[in-house]
Amino acid sequence: MKLKNRVAYYFVSRIFWLMLIWGILIILSIVLISYFLEHHQKESPLLSINDIVEYTVFVDQKPSIESEVEADLLSNNMWVQILDAQGNEVYSFNTPESIPNHYTPGELVSDYLYPAKNDFQLSTWYNRIDNQDLTWVLGKPMTSNNPFQYWVNNLWILFIILIGIVIAIFFGRQLGAPLLYIVSWIESLSKGNYEKPFYNRKFNIKQRWRNKTEYNTYKELNQALSDLTSTLQRNREERELLDKTREEWMTGVSHDLKTPLSVIKGYTVLLSSDDHDWEQDKVRYFSKIMEERVEYMEQLIEDFNLTFQLKNDVIPIQLEQKDLVNTLQHVLEHLEKMPEAKNKVFSFEADKEQIFLNMDTNYVKRAFENVIANSIKHNPPHTKIKVILHEEQSYPRQVRVSIEDDGVGMDPETMEHLFERYYQGTSATSDNTGTGLGMAIARQIIIAHGGEIKVNSKRELGTQFIITFLIEEE
């Protein structure tokens, strides 16, 4: 079920349950009230008022009741009043002192409807006899208190309200707690705190059984926020590491630029000095050193520009079918002339005389030069460096280049950051005069050609670079 459908179902179901519980409470209240009313309704007197009216006699137009009825009234602790049309008592028997001898119509109705008010219950009868409008009132003290007196009614109403508040809080918490948690999470992210809110850990440990359903309703949103939190946290760590590395790199580059500039400036001052008349050989020697320093600075600037061009895919790569075997042979011949390559042992193997690859030769040369030069610069004398070229015929066809050495190897941290810009290893055999861009450039060039590069290395056991390219079928 999609998130929006599940959320809609969740809200509708909770509203349904809320209405159902409220309905049950109302029905329960009605049933209880009806039950108590049935069991605590006004008691019917043992003598009916009809019998009393029937046994009423008139002497000189004054009403009275027979002696048998009076005996029954006494035995049942009951009394009787006969009222005229004005509500005045014209006859009474066994009437308590607290009973009035005059009633207004409203008082009579009130006493009849609310017997608990005066602790007695009444029955009334009206009849016209001998042109007299008479009302019989039969009374009896209440033998039990009505449970629905005013204070009991108030307590019952208060109890229902409290139950309603508890239910509303419960469902409000179920509906609102996940949303409040998500809002607090987003607010935390906006403040740069890339961690899950503390309440989530408490929920996971202590309240899983209570909140599982409501939190699972938003599981995609929670998972998205969790992924976002992890990504932001990882990006911040990478940014901090990149900033630190960039600062270190800038310090190194500044030093690397100052050193050749200082040399160039020193020789320039010497050549321009009027105090010396330099011989031609000396001038050539000074010029050669200055040329080398200028080439180094040019290389540094070129590497810096190239890595950003490759990163932003703005460098024009001209792909052509070229022989990779011949390209690698030329790379090795060039690198063997490096001063650092002295006392290194090189070997090259290829399973075919020619292996054609759709590539930009200049950039591919640059990539392999950087990778092999890494093995040359960071290993001690007599290190064996082997380049193996193999074409795999399985589908899809691919070319595999393995560059292996038996040198000092790399630690896990160096392997992890090897292809990052500005990173320079900490090998004790390295002079660390590079720009820290060579391996990043190599990787970007290989990726731009649809290839990939992997590295395997262990301390004191050497390093292996594995570079693969797909061969397009003609």
Structure description:
This protein is an alpha+beta fold and 474 residues long. The chain is built from 13 helices and 13 strands. The strands form four sheets. The protein has a five-stranded mixed beta sheet, covered by helices on one side.
Features of this protein?
474 residues, 13 strands, alpha+beta
In short:
The protein has 474 residues and is α+β, with helices and mostly antiparallel strands. The protein has 13 helices and 13 strands. Strand 5 and strand 6 form a beta hairpin.
Note the topology.
Blueprint (H helix, E strand, L loop, with lengths): L2 H37 L9 H6 L1 E4 L2 E4 L1 H9 L3 E5 L5 E5 L11 H9 L6 E10 L2 E10 L8 H41 L7 H9 L1 H9 L2 H54 L7 H32 L8 E4 H12 L9 E6 L5 E4 L1 H17 L6 E9 L5 E8 L6 H6 L20 H11 L3 E7 L3 E9 L4
Parallel strand pairs: 8-10
Antiparallel strand pairs: 1-2, 3-4, 3-6, 5-6, 7-9, 10-11, 11-13, 12-13
Helix pairs in contact: 1-5, 5-8, 8-9, 9-13, 10-11, 11-13
Q: What is the spatial order of strands in the main beta sheet?
A: 8-10-11-13-12
Alpha-beta classification: alpha+beta
Number of E-state strands = 13
Number of helices: 13
Net shape? rod-shaped
Helical coverage, percent range:
40-55%
Regions with pLDDT < 50 over 5+ consecutive residues? 40-45, 200-210, 426-432
Largest sheet: number of strands, sense, barrel closure: 5 strands, mixed
